[in-house]
Amino acid sequence: MSTHPLHLGHNLKRLREIQGVKQQALALQLGEGWNQKKISLLEARPWIEPELLQQLARALDVPVAAIEGFQEEGLRRQLTSPLPALPLVIDGEANLLEKCLQLQEENRSLYQQLLQAERDKSRLLQKLVNQQKRQAPCSPLHPLSRSHKRASLL
User: Fold this and answer.
1) What ranges do the domains of the chain cover?
2) Which residue from 33, 46, 65, 125 has the highest number of Cβ atoms inside 10 Å of its Cβ?
3) Is residue 56 classed exposed, middle or buried when 0-12, 13-18 and 19+ CB atoms within 10 A define those classes?
4) In degrees rounded to 5, what are phi and psi of residue 57?
5) What superfamily in CATH does domain 8-94 come from?
6) Residue 95: closest CA among 80, 84, 106
7) Does residue 15 contact residue 66 with C-beta atoms inside 8 Å?
8) How crowded is the C-beta side of 119, counted as CA atoms within 13 Å?
9) What is the pLDDT of residue 6?
10) What confidence tens digit (pLDDT) does each residue in 41-72 have?
11) Angle, CA 108 vertex, CA 75 and CA 15 arms, to 5°
12) Residue 26 — φ and ψ, nearest 5°?
C-alpha cells in the first residue's frame, strides 16, 4: 500500500498519459472554456472537486474510482512482475483498462476460432461436393446411373 498522500491531479495526468490522450484533446472533450493550459494547471492540483472529477472521468472513459485510487507503484509492479497483475484501483474496483484489454483479447481469440471453424467447414463441404461429383455416375442411388444401366440393357 502507498504511503504517499492522495494527489488527484497527478493521478489524472498518469491515467491520461497511459491512455495516450494529450492535454489539448482532453480539453476539447471537456468543452468550452477548457484549454491545454487549464488541464496542465488542473493536473498540478492535489484535490479536484467531485463534480469536475466526474466530468474528467467521463471524458477519459474511466470510473471516478480509477482517478481517486490510481497507484503508480501498482502499475510498475504489473509491468515488471511475472506474478499475476494486481488491480490498480483501491476499494475492490478492478482496473477497467486491464479488463477491457483482456476482453478484447478474448474476443479476438474467439473470432479467430470462429474463422477457423468456418474455414474447416468450408473445406469439408467442398470435399463432400467433390466426392459426390466423382461418385455420381457410379452410385446405384443416383438417378442417372439407373437410367444408364437400363439403356445398356436394351
Assistant:
1) 8-94, 108-153
2) 65
3) buried
4) -60, -45
5) lambda repressor-like DNA-binding domains (1.10.260.40)
6) 84
7) yes
8) 6
9) 79
10) 999 999 999 999 999 999 998 888 888 887 76
11) 25
12) -65, -40
Task: For residue 101, give the C-alpha cell.
Answer: 484489454
Q: Scan for cell 474463422, then name that residue.
A: 115
Length of the chain measured in residues: 154
Q: What is the pLDDT of residues 59-108, one digit of tens each?
A: 998 888 888 887 765 544 444 444 444 444 444 445 667 777 888 889 88
Residue 145 burial by Cβ neighbours in a 10 Å radius (0-12, 13-18, 19+): middle
The CA-atom distances, in angstroms, between 133 and each of 37, 119, 121, 122 are 73, 21, 18, 16
Rounded-to-10 torsion of CA 14, 42, 89, 61 = -80
* pLDDT(139) > 60: no
